[in-house]
Amino acid sequence: MEFSSKLLENAVYEMSQLPGIGKRTALRLVLHLLKQPKEQTSRLADALVGLKNKVKFCKSCHNISDTELCEICSNPRRDESIVCVVEDIRDVMAIENTSQFKGLYHVLGGKISPMEGVGPQDLTIKPLVDKAKEGKIKELVFALSSTMEGDTTNFYIYKQLEDLDIKTSTIARGIAVGDELEYADEVTLGRSILNRIPFENSLKA
Ligand SMILES: [Zn+2]
After folding, report:
1. Which domain holds residue 45?
2. Which of 52, 64, 106, 164 is the most exposed place for a label (fewest CB within 10 A)?
């Protein structure tokens, strides 16, 4: 792509670094922003910079939060003995929407993926294991997408907890293999949390 302006080229380049945004889409978005009133573009820029500079991650579950301890972790009505292990905030939002889960979450920040160079040390697995060793957790519910990466991650965590007296379960899937949690409908997802199965059983299947 040949640009008549270095400024335009820069903006298009940065925009195209976003996932799913090719050069053409980036150009369309940048031209759109250029047509907007200056205040509008400033608000967008401020929101992004503010997010990056000020966002916090809950010190317990690692979910995105405005406070040190997120609303879910600091809610006394939640059951701290059961922890649902998810990949990111989208899964927390999807499961919260079902209103079927009253425990806490642990946000891993991704899945183990040798192909993408993501190892256990890149995720919040160690804090999870440390938390498990404190003895408050009675059950861990794996709710990662049932992809090879999800299964690998579940199994890795399961192995780390082997010596601890913690029940591990996995959400029952009415969901096809490879479907991401966030796309599952609320009823199906809610049911799959209620009908979770012992993790060991999922290994035999
Ligand atoms: Zn939290």
Report:
1. 6-54
2. 52
Q: What distance in angstroms lies between residue 90's CA and the mean position of ligand 1's atoms?
A: 14
Distance from residue 70's CA to the centre of ligand 1 (Å)? 4
Q: Is residue 90 part of a domain?
A: yes
- Per residue in 116-138, pLDDT (tens digit) is 899 999 999 999 999 999 999 99
Backbone angles phi, psi at 154, to 5 degrees: -55, -50
Q: Please provide the average confidence, as pLDDT, over all residues in the chain.
A: 90
Distance from Cα 126 to the centre of ligand 1, integer Å:
16
The answer to whether residues 18 and 70 belong to one domain is no
- Looking at the structure, tell me whether residues 50 and 103 fall in a common domain: no
3 state SS of 168: strand
Centre of ligand 1 to C-alpha 67, Å, is 9
Confidence class for position 190, pLDDT limits 50, 70, 90? confident
Q: Kindly give the distance from the C-alpha atom of residue 63 to the centroid of ligand 1, in angstroms, as a whole number.
A: 6
* Within a domain: 1: no
Q: Is residue 139 part of a domain?
A: yes
Render 24-61 in DSSP notation, one character per residue: HHHHHHHHHHHHS-HHHHHHHHHHHHHHHHH-EE-TTT
Output the pTM of the full model.
0.80
Q: Are residues 122 and 198 in the same domain?
A: yes
Average pLDDT over every residue of 25-34? 96
